[in-house]
Amino acid sequence: MLDKHHILIVEDDAEISQFLQTSLKASGYLTQCVRTISEAKHHFAAQKPVLVILDLNLPDGDGTEMISAIRNYSDIPILVLSARQSEQEKVNCFNLGADDYLAKPFGINELLARIKVTLKRLSIMSLRDDVYQLDALEINTANATVLLNQQAVHLTPIEFKLLLILAQKPGKVFTHRQLLTAVWGAEYVDDTHYLRIHMGRLRAQLETNTAKPRYILTEAGIGYRLAAT
Predict the structure, then answer these.
(1) Domains of the chain, each with CATH number or no CATH
(2) Is the whole-model pTM more than 0.85?
């Protein structure tokens, strides 16, 4: 059932590489593992995987180079799997275009869950790429409408633009910098208070309990994402 889900693993540690291949194969995924950026670029161009699992510390360079290279011509999901655990490393990867970041050591069940959510999102978006629906919330990007419990939600232009950005990739973390640049412009990348104010207002419109949000989730110190499931 999942044999079409070809995943490229870019990992130079032989033990981790073998563990990933064995675990993903047991879950029904096809995998190809390479250990360098050069090999990854060649394989990516030739095989067109549906998802990339990427280490950052590679023999021929920094894995962030691979993120930038992929984003030059593809929107394929990139899941970073790295021993680097600093908040700034994560922010940098997300700003470059990574979709998710899991720090080593990691639990295989969490990794499999994140892969499943990502591929499910892609499947749903390919069928209805203009509509996001989760529980009582529906966002139609084609006609610019938002429904909650089948009732129209009236948002300000800024609130709607923020929501629309998040809805383009449910489950993906958008950094403060990405959101501020997209909505207000590059000169506002440090004005995170603008973002907090408008996200607070947006949550007040959509969430039953803003202290425990269902739809708009915070990644502390990094940014926001729209729940995918």
Answers:
(1) 6-125 (3.40.50.2300), 130-226 (1.10.10.10)
(2) no
